[in-house]
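Much of the work behind modern protein science is quiet bookkeeping, done one molecule at a time. The fold becomes a row of whole numbers, each drawn from a learned catalogue of backbone shapes. The protein below has been through that process, and both of its lines are reproduced in full.
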Amino acid sequence: MQNETKPRARDLGVPFPGTPGSLNAITDVNGVMVGHTTLISGEGKLEVGKGPVRTGVTAVWPRGVGATEGVSAGVFALNGVGEMTGTHLIEEFGAFIGPVLLTNTLSVGVVRDAVITWARDHIADAEKLFYFSLPVVAETWDGNISDAYGQHVRPRHVFAALDGAAGGPVAEGNVGGGTGMSTYEFKGGIGTASRRVSVPVGDYTVGALVQSNFGRREQLLVAGVPVGKEIDDLRPSRLPGDALSSSIIILVATDAPFLPTQLKRLARRAGLGLARTGSTAHHHSGDIFLAFSTAVSPTRAGSGLDVYTAVPDAHIDPFFDAVAYAVEEAIINALAAAETMTGKDGATLHALPHGRLQSILRRYNRLHE
């Protein structure tokens, strides 16, 4: 659960467009549940296999823990130097069954296998179990401060994230898969936000959750203000040979009924939210986006045909807006929640300083007071 005493970006006076849901989180979409397992241990000199460890796992269930009903989905890679398993199935069927897991780059395999083991032990229906055999697992690199090659994530950590997922407020910052991540050379991690959408065919919610680990300092924009250029200190200590941290996984959830082709269009708009914070999707970046709908579809007609219900394309623009705005805020929420963290060989990722952020926004007449 979110620590309610930790301010989020709106609490700091950062202005954002659009109207959020009651939690301003992906869990505003009914049925969506989120769980984290956070692994923090050791300090000092790197010893591969021993630590220091700054990593974890985040699980997102579209329809609640253990649900075996699929969701319509679409995927899009803005830049593909990264991994999200299960995407070929989504491209083929326009749907997937089961949870989405987020972790570090070198733990994708063990997390994927652990999801299958969890399903084997919990799903009795053989046909449903089969679709759990191609789980969705995505990654970003936390090896700048964590013993990545020690591969510290174990099946029990995955089980804990899966079983512990819940609705309600979502913990952000240095948690779960986001534990060791950085954003615009500040400490980053998990962030979430949501938007309400009203169109002639109904009232709906769009939620976003990010595992944020990308960007160069000078690019950072907060509410359109060049905060990264204004805060030129608090740079991370880098080690020779470290890969550039420049990836983000973005999940978009909605309770609006959409076809897979429409959801792929929503997934693309996640890149616009990313751009609103300053990113241009670098060469080494794994910017991979997944959008899914929890609306029940299809139904079987008397003719034997499947009948799908979808929001008409004529009303899709407000959903595009909602995706871009929710993703932007989710990224800034990850920055606001993250705390300074020191890891292997003393490498440090500094938190975005709240007071300085507010002073900068005030100077640009952008602080909401």
